């Protein structure tokens, strides 16, 4: 099974290179690729990439989409659906469960506005990269946020009001 996964990863890397060869925001590396986002450069390693990002659609969702009134939506899903009722454990379902647990814990707390700044790439104490910190402060809009809040425009809509909106 590892060979299949490795083949899928290699094929994925080739496809990225072919399709996005001229994209100025993409840079290929030996292990994968880098994407130059507006917030900074992110490195992606292709080993295990397809396996980590594989997700399975549940049968009831496929059936729902097949019963759509929209012809385009119906055409996106196959006619045959496996009738097994078991739901596979997917990365998405694990993340959803963990996110729900986190939201439950957070709803029991008093929220605070917190932004984390990563001071370095070395993960060592007392290692301060001024350029990195400045970039994050600018990207997060912290100066503007502080200015707006100090001017008295801090606003937080209560969750139940937001939900009912």
UniProtKB/TrEMBL annotation:
Gene Ontology annotations of biological process type: actin filament organization; endocytosis
Transmembrane segments: none
GO terms of molecular function: actin filament binding; ATP binding; microfilament motor activity
InterPro entries: Myosin_head_motor_dom-like (IPR001609)
Region annotation Actin-binding: where it falls in the sequence: 99-121
PROSITE patterns: MYOSIN_MOTOR
Segments forming domain Myosin motor: 1-165
Organism: Allacma fusca
UniProt entry keywords in alphabetical sequence: Actin-binding, ATP-binding, Motor protein, Myosin, Nucleotide-binding
Protein name as catalogued: Myosin motor domain-containing protein
Lineage: Eukaryota, Metazoa, Ecdysozoa, Arthropoda, Hexapoda
GO CC terms, sorted: cytoplasm; microvillus; myosin complex; plasma membrane
Family the entry assigns: Belongs to the TRAFAC class myosin-kinesin ATPase superfamily. Myosin family.
The keyword Membrane is annotated on this UniProt entry: no
Pfam families referenced in this protein's UniProt entry, alphabetically: Myosin_head
The keyword Nucleotide-binding is annotated on this UniProt entry: yes
